[in-house]
Design goal:
The chain is mostly helical. The protein has nine helices and five strands.
Amino acid sequence: MFRRGFKTWAERTSLRVREKLSLPASSPLDPFRFADLLGVPVLNPGELPDLADDVRQRLNTDHRDCWSAITVTDGKSHLIVVNSSHARTRLNSSLAHEIAHIILGHEPSMMFMSPSSEMALRTHNEEQEEEANWFSGCLLLPREALMLIRRMGKSPDDACSEYGVSAAMLRFRFNVTGVDAQLQYGRRRKHGCR
């Protein structure tokens, strides 16, 4: 599970990110703008001049459903390559996930060559993946945003459209944060029920 205090840190950090971008706490976050603030270029395979044509071809056609985003680093700086053929909601989630790995200082646990594509791939251990998943969810949908969505009575479709997230991400964040239970408890207390 998460180390002590991680979830609180992730929520607070998502709010500090919004402060740096001069956004209200409940505002949608554009992960591309956040990457720019961090000085992390975000490119698609077509924008990589040194990428071999055959590799670009495989990424854009043969294997386009097999990857979403990957971070390339030399140890000092980072570059994120995104699969621009994916829906914007998936791009937002994938980019936020890669940014989370960078901010958290995660190092890949394994690098390997994919036999099917002959490309170098990296993986993170399960703990790092869980941390990046949690933190990226906080970046895209902090508690303040979830509270606002419920208080304003926004439909899931409207909330997903406004925040640039999938319905699955919205459901996940509502489920893991306990926002609905918190609001329900507040309503019961307001009406004298326990």
